[in-house]
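Bench notes, bay 3.
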Amino acid sequence: MKKSIPFKSIPASSMRKLAIGAWGAPNNPSASVELVFDVSRLNDHLPSGIQLKHAMIKLLSTLLNQVPQLNTVIVRRKLRQRLNNRIFIPTVFRHQGMLDLSGIFIDNAHALTCEEIKQEMAEKVSALRMGQDATT
């Protein structure tokens, strides 16, 4: 059986184990977090053609690379640390007169330049719009 999320088990403190036991069964392995960044001066330093979204994808991927404990999910009441560094980017476009909310992902964006991120996003969004996305 293939794992949908490659991970490694990580030890948990007794307090964390108690907290996990007190929660209801997780039905969604994702976690929502709010991060506050002051990006007011970032746009002034971005190269031509690079948008804030490209820089933010690189920043978030770099954060996950430097602090891998943030890339953790709960599976079967146990903490699992993801082994991949994948950033999901939602996309919204019209398809046959209806809004289509889908998305793309970029692996290891921390190792890419903002220009490479921009290029990969453009290719994946184009493939998604044309129905040629292999992951759908």
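Next record in the batch:
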Amino acid sequence: MKKLCALLAILTFTVLLVWAEDTQPEASVRVAELDAYWAEVSRCVKEGDFNAYKATFHKDGILVSGTKNEAYPIAQALARWKPDFTQTESGKITASVEFRFSKRLGDATTAHETGMFLYSRVNADGTKTMAYIHFEALLIKHAHWEAMMEYQKSQGTEKEWDKLRTRNDQ
């Protein structure tokens, strides 16, 4: 009986070890692809590249605003955000967005990302605003990654932001 228990323990450990090794490469590939996705989102905001930014969302995507208790199609949010992209592209304002994550789940074609983003904006008069936002994103990959849902959960703080690791630290 002891030999059977020992054999089962070894077998279980081996299966878990093989499973962990099999899923690790997939996870690291997914995270690398998603890091590239978030870098593209940041680039679009910084350069005011509205069309490329729009392409980071699925056409049927949804924006959920926890602070406003609303949910609506991303197309509606994009229409509201477009003037900021136009002003950024023309140099009237500067804008940037950075991302940090607390949890990253998924597989080769789906992802659920949890963390914060920091949106910074400097108006033409030099007024600077910074918004720390807790968020979740649900993404799907067909030809490329696209956000199906962006959930802007709540306002955050610089202290909460500082506690999260940057993409490169993960």
